[in-house]
């Protein structure tokens, strides 16, 4: 059974192309390697083993020619690289392209639909986070870093957290009292820490990239 990789994507483009992207990412498909035949419920499908696609309801309010930005989230197997990119080592696209004329990579979806796509992921089993950004098919960012989980439920107060001698000092510096309190307020027990702190910074980064 594959490890589950959670992702969040922000996509910018025309309404009609955003609709196609979500439809293709959600499409059903099957492949027969024996006779090299494939079936797809849509014109194309994006990647393999994307289990869930949520958050696309706002498409109902976007006109076909309207420029807009949507955010979707869900999960896939192993990693974004494995499921959605042409990875030379372990990618599903490399394994299946010969038998499947319907598949697009994330890069091809960005190029063919003229979309800007920024994706973040985290995989809790192997403890890594990905950050990928395509602009009309051009790769702008392709990063993967280690991260760890900090369970704030272990600490009654922020001061207890700071006084934990077993935690690295850099981790303590990366979590402010505001972030500690907000995480508790929203009912989460965990704070995810990684080198670039993708999830904590992503809103600010997205706002810069998608409005520049």
Could you provide a short overview of the structure?
The protein is α+β, with helices and mostly antiparallel strands and 212 residues long.
Give a description of the structure.
By secondary structure, this protein is α+β, with helices and mostly antiparallel strands. The chain has one domain: Api92-like domains (Alpha-Beta Plaits, 2-Layer Sandwich). Helix content is 29%, strand content 35%. The protein has 8 helices and 11 strands. Strand 9 and strand 10 form a beta hairpin. The protein is globular, with a radius of gyration of 19 Å.
Structure class: alpha+beta
The CATH architecture term is: 2-Layer Sandwich
Distance between the termini: 41 Å
Strand order of the largest sheet: 5-6-1-8-9-10-11
Number of domains: 1
Overall shape: it is globular
What is the helix fraction of residues, given as a range? 25-40%
Secondary-structure topology with pairs:
Layout: E1 4-14, H1 15-26, E2 29-32, E3 37-40, E4 45-46, E5 50-54, E6 67-77, H2 80-84, H3 92-96, E7 103-104, H4 106-112, E8 116-123, E9 128-135, E10 138-151, H5 158-162, H6 169-174, H7 177-185, E11 190-194, H8 198-209
Parallel strand pairs: 4-7
Antiparallel strand pairs: 1-6, 1-8, 2-3, 5-6, 8-9, 9-10, 10-11
């Amino acid at each position: 059974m594959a490890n589950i990789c959670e992702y969040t994507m922000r996509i910018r483009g025309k309404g009609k192309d955003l609709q196609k992207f979500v439809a293709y990412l959600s499409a059903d498909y099957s492949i027969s390697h024996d006779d090299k035949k494939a079936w797809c419920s849509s014109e194309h499908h994006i990647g393999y083993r994307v289990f869930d696609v949520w958050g696309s309801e706002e498409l109902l309010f976007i006109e076909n020619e309207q420029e807009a930005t949507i955010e979707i989230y869900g999960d896939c197997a192993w990693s974004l690289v494995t499921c959605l990119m042409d990875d030379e080592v372990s990618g599903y696209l490399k394994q299946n392209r010969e038998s499947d004329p319907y598949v697009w990579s994330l890069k091809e979806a960005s190029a063919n639909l003229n979309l800007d796509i920024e994706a973040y992921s985290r995989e809790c089993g192997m403890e890594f986070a990905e950050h990928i950004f395509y602009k009309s098919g051009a790769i702008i960012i392709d990063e993967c870093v280690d991260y760890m989980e900090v369970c704030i439920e272990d600490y009654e107060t922020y001061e207890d957290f700071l006084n934990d001698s077993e935690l690295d000092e850099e981790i303590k510096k990366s979590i402010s009292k505001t972030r500690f309190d907000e995480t508790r307020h929203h009912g989460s027990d965990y704070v995810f820490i990684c080198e670039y702190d993708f999830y904590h910074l992503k809103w600010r980064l997205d706002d810069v990239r998608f409005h520049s």
